[in-house]
Amino acid sequence: MKKETINLDQFGMSEEELFSLHPNNESEAEKITAPRYSYWKSVFRVFFRKKINIFVLVLLVFVIVFAFVYPPLSGYDEFANLMDSTAKHLTPAAAMEKFGRNIHWCLGTGASGNSTFDAVWAGARISIALALVCALINMVVGVIVGALWGYSKRADKIMLEVYNVVGNIPYQLLCSVLVLIFRPKFWTMVFALTITGWLAIAHFFRTQVLIIRDREYNLASRCLGTPTLRIATKNLLPFLTSIIVTQAAVEIPSYISMEVFLSFIGLGLTDTTLGKLITNAQSAMLTPGWEMEFWSPVVLASIIAIVLYVAGQNLGDASDPRSHMM
Amino acid sequence: MTKYVLNRLIRGILSVAVMLVIVMVMIFTLMDRQLIFAADPVFSKRTNNAKTTYQYSKWEEYGYLDYVTYADYLTQLTKSGEIDEATRADAVKLGRTPEKDSALTKEYVEKFTQYYTAKGYAVTRLDTVMNGRKVANGGQAALFAAKDKPIWDRAIHYFTGILEFDNIHYVQEDIGERKLTFTLYDPMYGGEKFSPAIMGNGTYHKYLLYFDSKFPYIHQNFLTLHLGKSFVVNQGIDVFDTMTASQGAYIPTQITYPTGLTEQSADDLHTATYVPGSLQAGEVLYGTRYTDDYTQTSTFKGGMSKMGYSFLFGVLSVILAYLIGLPLGVWMALKADKLVDKIGTFYIVFITAVPSLSYIFMVKTIGYALKIPTTFDLESTNKMMYLLPIISLAMPSIARLMRWMRRYMIDQKNSDYVKFARSNGLTEGEIFSKHIMRNAVVPIVQGIPASVLFSLVGAFYTERVYAIPGTGGLMVTAIQTYDNNVIVGICLFYGLLSVVSLILGDVMMAAVDPRISFNTKAR
């Protein structure tokens, strides 16, 4: 190999500039130089790498903000035009002609002459709140119970029987009993949706934990005397982050369809909800000219579901730390 | 492992029993009893006291309470020989008010009240309702005792009645020599064909063991399963029989009746059961055919049972779902963020977001346009009519499997052991089939037994839309019509299915992944 020599004179620098004594710093030498890593920062870096996620997130924020801000402003009153027989079941064009060009009438009117557009957003507010609250309660309880259930064999014994007992009571029967005991209010709905809802989620995570329970790193942890709760929260749950987020993505939209079922059997709220709008407008689906009454809530419910699902699914991908290195 | 499984099975069965007691409490004490009359035309026509007594008799029929009228009580006394017919006829006449009762009536009313109050019944006396000088419509005086069935009695009675062993002392009437006979030549086939059978006299079933051409070819009647008799939907028939009885057109075969008469008939003589006095009552029809009171038979029908159809459709759709869903999920994971992944995600989102009824209708509409049969027909032999329901049933399962398979695959793909395997020079195919797949499939395996076994339960919407005679609507109908025994019966059936499928799921998971163990000591 040919040795290359560099002529330092070519830089035109003094000896002092070229070589200077660096002070020896003991404490600096102890530090390991590696790129700074923050978990959540990396999650969002990976998440926003996909352009669709930005779009979906903006849409999600828009829908939520609009659903919470618009109804109080619109002053929606279902029975405002009740006495006006010419205001019922109007197509968007006819409604605009009657009431003037206004955003309220861009989807036509419903069975009592109410604005479909306002009704849909008033319904969305409660439906979104319900879905988020129920999903939060069920996921938190389900995941924590599931982790302990899967990890501890003693808990497994007890919880399996709880699952066998509670999980097999027909949900329709349970709801029929709840209808008799409670008045249909927001928190009653939350109660009906969460009383057994967490159990299925907990069983799902029990299976996931069961798979990683006896891995070597958990065995090592156990040998070192780590308490069960710490193993559950520090060893098991981080492993399941992506699965938890994926489950949440499915869970939130499912409450909107559950709510349709509940209002169908009479446990629905007295306020307007998307589920109630869909149930009430079922006959309008097949009536020519009335289709908007049915499809508007269905489409909005679907948009909410799709947005939440896509955001959740991609957040699930991004929340896996193993994908951060790429 | 065997010990663990047996242990769990026993505990599971006990849990199902607890669940049934809870369900009984919910049905019989928490629910509003008045609701059963909501759609009852007879109830709305009855007035005054007749309405009240009708209510109680219905409640007794639906299993809410024990109800005894004063007249029943007197009839019972007559039967046991305590009083004679003339006394009964006099004593049964109630006055308009208790004060106007005759001395004899007063005496027996007192006895009745004492007897049933001592047994914990509430005795109610309804005075005659007058309309001017005449007795109002349905206003006759009434006296009855009623008591809610205690939950423990109810539960114990139900559990002891689930399994019934047939024995030669079943028939109470005089029936001649009570015995079991074994024959090598079943008389139903004319007495010449070799077909062993055990027949009984004095038992409830005539045939206790026999062979025929239906799967599983050997049948027994020693042990009968009672899940709960229906009052409303299928009156007097056990829900288990409702689920398992074959349906469709009659299939006549050449059979020989006990009298020796040979004719083409769909009667299945093997199912003959004892009905007291039926031979005499049905002389015209039965006289030439039967020699004893074992006359009630079911018939041979061409189709499968409700459960059979639900299971057939369910299993086929489960197979389809796993065959399509798993490979697609794997493909999506391999091409993460590429076009395939996006199309797949769109499909999953679509199924998740859209109500199930609408995409079932969509499949039906597309099928109609393609000239595929859109309704199920018991008589038709066209295999194409299975296509649309199976697709509709498989669609949500495919989405679910795709979603989770993709998730598990992606999680595994980024694992350190995969990177290590790659750096050690394993081919992508090897890594994929021997490492990623085997790990990713573990959580999927747990759900397989449940998805197969729960096909027995049927699918509510799909069966309705395609007119499939399956079990899907049973529970919903039972709850809607307050068919209380049937609700309990179906709960028992579903509960056992769920217990078994959970155990099988765990066993299969442990078999696929040897790292999972259920045997080590409890912590």
Explain how this protein is built.
The complex is a heterodimer of chains A (326) and B (523). Chain A is an all-alpha fold and 326 residues long. Chain A is built from 15 helices and no strands. Chain A is flat. By secondary structure, chain B is an alpha+beta fold. Chain B folds into three domains: 43-157, no CATH class; 165-225 and 250-299, no CATH class; 306-470, MetI-like (MetI-like fold, Orthogonal Bundle). In chain B, the strands form six sheets. In chain B, strands 7-8-9-10 form a four-stranded antiparallel beta sheet, with no helix packed on it. A three-stranded antiparallel beta sheet of chain B has the order 1-5-2, sandwiched between helices. The longest helix of chain B is centred in the first third of the chain and has 29 residues, at 2-30. Chains A and B meet through α7, α8, α10, α13 and α15 of A and α1, α12, α14, α17 and α19 of B.
List keywords for this structure.
heterodimer, A: 326 residues, mainly alpha, 15 helices, 0% strand, flat, B: 523 residues, alpha+beta, MetI-like fold, 3 domains, 4-stranded antiparallel β-sheet, 3-stranded antiparallel β-sheet, 20 helices, 13% strand
Summarize the structure.
The complex is a heterodimer of chains A (326) and B (523). With 326 residues, chain A is mainly α. Chain A is built from 15 helices and no strands.
Main sheet summary of chain A: none
Can you name the CATH architecture of the largest domain in chain B? Orthogonal Bundle
Mean pLDDT of chain B: 85
Q: Stretches of chain A where pLDDT falls below 50 for ≥5 residues?
A: none
Terminal CA distance of chain A reads 37 Å
Topology order of chain A in helix (H) and strand (E) letters: HHHHHHHHHHHHHHH
Strand content of chain A: under 5%
Question: What coarse outline of chain B follows from CA principal-axis ratios?
Answer: globular
Average predicted confidence as pLDDT of chain A: 80
Biggest interface reads: A-B, 52 and 58 residues
Percent of residues of chain B in helical segments? Answer: 40-55%
Number of helices of chain B: 20
Put simply, the count of helices of chain A is: 15
Please give the number of β-strands of chain B.
Answer: 15
* Largest β-sheet summary of chain B: 4 strands, antiparallel
